[in-house]
Structure to design on (347 residues):
C-alpha cells in the first residue's frame, strides 16, 4: 500500500489517499493515527496534526482506483494562518549561533572545527542573500537616509567587508576574511578547501572573501549535532524569492542542467509512504521539460538560482525520491511533477 496524508492548516482538513491496495477497510481513527486493514494486516498511518473524532468516517473510492479519507482537524495555531511570514527565517542564523553559549561548525568530512569561538568574536547577519545584487544596484543608487539597517552596511563600511574574526551569516553561506580562517582553510584557485582533509568547503567571492557553504559543515551546540542539507539551500532561496518579490517560480541551474520549480503551498503537513511525518512542509511542482520551461519563462518573471553539481544532484535526488513515494493520483498536475520538502528546523 502506498499513501499520502496532506494536512491543509488554513482550511483545517486532512486528506488520506491510499493506492496500490485491495479492498482496504478503515478500522479506527485516533487523534493522530488512522488504522487501515488490508487482507489480514493492519497498517497504522500517522497524521501530521490532530483530527476531530467523528462518527461515520468512511473510505471512499476515487476516480483512479485510489481510496480517500477526509478528516477535519482541531483548530490550528494562529501563526499558521500567516503564510510565508510564519515560515522559519532560516537555519543557522545569527540567533542560532550564540557566541556566549559556544558552538562549533565542523568540516563534514574530517570533523575539524572550521568556525568556533576560537576564531570568531563577532557575528552579523547579511540582510539578504541577494546582497551582491543590491550592492551592485547601490553602486549607482545610494540608499535613502532612514533605511537604518541598510546604512549600517553601506555607509558604515561602504562595502561588504567583514573584520578579522567577524562572521557574516547569509541564508546558506557564511562570509569571512581569509585571515579569519588561516588555521582552518585555504583558498586554492577559486575554491576554499579544508586545511586538514582538502575537501571543498566553499569558494572565493569577487571581493576576495571566503564564502563557506553551510552544507559542507555540521553544527555542534549544547552537545547536539545539526546538519544543513544541500537542498535546504535551494528551498531557502525559493522562500526568500517569495518573501522578497512574491515570486513562486524558480529555475534551478547547474551548467546545462535545469529544473523549473513552482512553490505551490507553504507550511502544510504531510505524511509520506513509509511513515515519515513532515510537520511543516512545502509542496513543490517541478519539471525538466524544456518546452514547458521555455513557455513559463516567456510568460513571466522567474527567479534563477545557480548551484554547484553537489547541490543540484542532492536536490534532484530528494525531490524524485519523494515524488516516487506518492500515490499515482497525487503525482502531478498536467506537465508538472509533485513533491514535498520539509521546512528546516534549528537546534
Ligand atoms: Zn576537513
Ligand atoms: Zn512522475
Amino acid at each position: 500500500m502506498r499513501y499520502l496524508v496532506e494536512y491543509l492548516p488554513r482550511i483545517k482538513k486532512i486528506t488520506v489517499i491510499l493506492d496500490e491496495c485491495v479492498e482496504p477497510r478503515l478500522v479506527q481513527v485516533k487523534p493522530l493515527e488512522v488504522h487501515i486493514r488490508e487482507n489480514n494486516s493492519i497498517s497504522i498511518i500517522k497524521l501530521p496534526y490532530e483530527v476531530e473524532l467523528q462518527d461515520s468516517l468512511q473510505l471512499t473510492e476515487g476516480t483512479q482506483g485510489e481510496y480517500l479519507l477526509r478528516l477535519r482537524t482541531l483548530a490550528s495555531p494562529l501563526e499558521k494562518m500567516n503564510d510565508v511570514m510564519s515560515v522559519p527565517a532560516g537555519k543557522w542564523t545569527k540567533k542560532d549561533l550564540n557566541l556566549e553559549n559556544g558552538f562549533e561548525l565542523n568540516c563534514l568530512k574530517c570533523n575539524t572545527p572550521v568556525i568556533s569561538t576560537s576564531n570568531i568574536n563577532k557575528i552579523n547577519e547579511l540582510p539578504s542573500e541577494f546582497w551582491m545584487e543590491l550592492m551592485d544596484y547601490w553602486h549607482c543608487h545610494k540608499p535613502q537616509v532612514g533605511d537604518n539597517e541598510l546604512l549600517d552596511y553601506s555607509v558604515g563600511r561602504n562595502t561588504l567587508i567583514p573584520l578579522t574574526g567577524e562572521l557574516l551569516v547569509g541564508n546558506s553561506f557564511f562570509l569571512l576574511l581569509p585571515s579569519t580562517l588561516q588555521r582552518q582553510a585555504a583558498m586554492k584557485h577559486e575554491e576554499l578547501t579544508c586545511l586538514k582533509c582538502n575537501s571543498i568547503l566553499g569558494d572565493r567571492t569577487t571581493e576576495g572573501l571566503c564564502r563557506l557553504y553551510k552544507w559542507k559543515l555540521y553544527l555542534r551546540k549544547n552537545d547536539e549535532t545539526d546538519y544543513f542539507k544541500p537542498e535546504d539551500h535551494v528551498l531557502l532561496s525559493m522562500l526568500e524569492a517569495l518573501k522578497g518579490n512574491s515570486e513562486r517560480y524558480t529555475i534551478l541551474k547547474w551548467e546545462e542542467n535545469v529544473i523549473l520549480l513552482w512553490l505551490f503551498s507553504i507550511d502544510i503537513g504531510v505524511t509520506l509512504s513509509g511513515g515519515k511525518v513532515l510537520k511543516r512542509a512545502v509542496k513543490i511542482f517541478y519539471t525538466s521539460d524544456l518546452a514547458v520551461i521555455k513557455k513559463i519563462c516567456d510568460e513571466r518573471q522567474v527567479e534563477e538560482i545557480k548551484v554547484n553539481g553537489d547541490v543540484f544532484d542532492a536536490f534532484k535526488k530528494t525531490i524524485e525520491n519523494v515524488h516516487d513515494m506518492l500515490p499515482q493520483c497525487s503525482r502531478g498536475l498536467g506537465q508538472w511533477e509533485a513533491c514535498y520538502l520539509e521546512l528546516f528546523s534549528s537546534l
User: Anything to note?
Assistant: The radius of gyration is 23 Å. The helical segments are 131-138, 148-157, 230-245, 290-299, 309-325.
